[in-house]
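Postdoc handover notes: sequence design on the structure in folder B. Input tokens:
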């Protein structure tokens, strides 16, 4: 399990435990985090779990696959170089201490 910080759209920071193998989207929706909708349930088909990943974690993550890159083309909020879909980031020790910032809107 990894403890990460999620900055909600209103600026409130939430400490979130992400179990190994769970996605950040799963942990955030289960934990009641404001700002992640996850309408597709984590199947990388909607882009409503768009997030901005801190630099340290970006260096640890595998590159986004084609399906994630395709979905990122449809995000509502600004797409940035550190944009990822939270449903595609799986819990592991590498996440510990990371900060994920949520955009102001998902739809």
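Designed sequence:
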């Amino acid at each position: 399990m990894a403890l990460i910080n999620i900055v909600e759209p209103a600026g409130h920071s939430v400490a979130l435990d992400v179990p190994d193998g769970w996605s950040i989207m799963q942990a955030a929706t289960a934990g009641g985090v404001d700002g992640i909708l996850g309408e597709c349930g984590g199947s990388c088909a909607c882009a409503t779990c768009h997030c901005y990943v801190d630099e340290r974690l970006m260096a640890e993550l595998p590159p986004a696959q084609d399906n994630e890159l395709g979905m990122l083309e449809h995000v509502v909020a600004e797409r940035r170089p550190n944009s990822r879909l939270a449903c595609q980031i799986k819990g592991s020790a590498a996440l510990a201490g990371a900060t994920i910032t949520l955009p102001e809107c998902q739809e």
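Context for whoever picks this up: The CA atoms of residues 8 and 21 lie 23 Å apart. Don't rerun without checking with the PI first.
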